Amino acid sequence: MIICKLIFNRSKATALTRNNLSLYTSVLRRKFCKKQSDNASDGLENIPVEQIRNFSIIAHVDHGKSTLADRLLEHTGAIKTGRDKSNQQVLDKLQVERERGITVKAQSASLLYNYNGEKFLLNLIDTPGHVDFSNEVSRSLSACQGVILLVDANDGVQAQTVANFYLAFGNDLVIIPVLNKIDLPNADPERVCHQLQTLFDIDPSTILKISAKKGIGIDKVLEAIVKTLPSPPVDRNAKFRALLFDSSHDKYRGALSLIFVKDGTISLGDNICSAHTKKEYEVKSLSLLRPDEVPVKKLVAGQIGLLGCNMRSSKEAHIGDTIHHVGETVEVLPGFQPLKPMVFAGIYPMDQSQHIHLRNAIEKLTLNDSAVTVEVDTSPALGQGWRLGFLGLLHMEVFSQRLEQEYGAEPIITAPSVTYKIKLKPTKQLIKDGSDIIYINNPAHFPDTVKIEETFEPMVKATIITPDEYLGSIISLCMERRGVQTNATNIDNNRVMLQYDLPLCEIVLDFHDTLKTLSSGYASFDYEDSGYQSSNLVKLQILLNGTAVDELSSIVHITKSQTIGKQMVHRLKDIIPRQMVQIAVQAAIGGKILARENIKPYRKDVTAKLYGGDVTRRMKLLAQQAAGKKKMRMVANISLPRETFIDVLKK
Question: Where is GTP annotated to bind (predicted)?
Answer without folding.
Answer: 59-66, 126-130, 180-183
